[in-house]
Amino acid sequence: MLFFSIVLTFIKFTAFFITHSNAILTDALENIINVVAGAVALFSTYFASLPKDKNHPYGHGKVEYLSVGFEGALVIIAGGSIIIKSISGFFIHHEIQSLDIGLYITIFGGLCYLLMGTYLMKQGKIHNSVLMIADGKHLLTDALSSVGLIIGLSIIYFTKIFWLDNVIAITFGCFILYTGIKLLKESVNNLLDEADYDKLNMLVTILNEHRGDKWIDIHNLRVLKYGSHLHIDAHITLPWYDKLEESHKEITSVENLIKKRLDGDVEFFIHADPCLPSSCPICVVNNCAERKSEFVKRLDWTLENLLPDKKHHL
Predict the structure, then answer these.
(1) SS3 (DSSP) at 179
(2) What are the two backbone dihedrals, phi and then psi, of residue 8, each rounded to the nearest 5 degrees?
(3) Least crowded by CB within 10 Å, which of 196, 207, 306, 310?
(4) Would you say the pTM of this structure is higher than 0.85?
(5) CA dihedral of residues 162, 163, 165, 171 (deg, nearest 10)
(6) 229-238 and 217-226 beta bridge pairing
(7) What is the DSSP letter of 59?
(8) Helix 99-127 and helix 130-159: axis angle, to 10°?
(9) Which residues, 6+ apart, have CB-to-CB distance to 294 below 8 Å?
(10) CA–CA separation, 268 vs 251, rounded Å?
(11) Complete domains list, the chain, with CATH
(12) Cα–Cα distance between 20 and 164 in angstroms, integer?
């Protein structure tokens, strides 16, 4: 991505110097962000892949979120600069030249964004990399911006209404600003361990579909992301009279079940709780000699009852 961004930046600034179009300058300045982001992403990808050590027991994956935040901040700065430059363009006029060349270069750049963004999104999903997915989204956003820019430049080319150049630049400056704010928000939310409800819903589905008879209850379920690594916490209620070896076997079966169905490296901290008399009405264990009350119904697990740190009962 880094080499790709450097080449495109050179091409787009060449287009700006030929045309003197603020709209094309918008595209070129935004591409500088891709160069810086690519350099930071290259380092972050390397750093995130380092193994756990005594100073980083959960690994180094969260550096990806810092990288996304840094990229978002740069995009915000670029968007603001573009808006200011374009507003000044209404008062300081520059003659636009060779707009057809600018159009050809913008079309070429848009196609490159589309291909590279699609590739990064695909690889990011394969490797479960938040950074690659964020960069892919950013490039696809650039491709969409290029479509709008091409339409705008075409209108200017055929109508000769050159002040539209500044209007287009301001419009895309606002769009770039919005993209930067989204990236920064995503970074902050991930650093603050915002709940990933897609992953949580997937876990709920897996646990319900493959539920063991001795898994009386699961609660305090949490998922933390460290780059491509997932850290899962949960409490599981098991029969109090089982030996430690039997309880460990049940916990291992939960871990193996989830590892088979989730991509990436998954780490577990599953705490075993003994069942209580209040667990009997929802316990499906057959022929339990210690049952204190009759079975009433099996409790369906949902996000609402798996997330709280509270044992379930009727």
Answers:
(1) helix
(2) -65, -35
(3) 310
(4) no
(5) -160
(6) antiparallel
(7) -
(8) 160
(9) 280, 281
(10) 10
(11) 2-191 (1.20.1510.10), 197-306 (3.30.70.1350)
(12) 13
Residue with tokens 């193994």: 51
CA distance 307 to 292: 27
Tokens of 288: 């339990």
Residue with tokens 């790709």: 4
Helices of type H across the chain? 2-19, 22-48, 63-89, 99-127, 130-159, 164-191, 197-209, 244-261, 303-306
Q: Which two tokens stand for residue 21?
A: 């179009």
Q: How far is CA 93 from CA 66, 85, 171, 173, in A?
A: 40, 11, 18, 19
Low-confidence residues of the chain: pLDDT under 70: 1-2, 93-95, 128, 130-131, 227-228, 263-264
Which tokens hold the place of 263?
């991509």
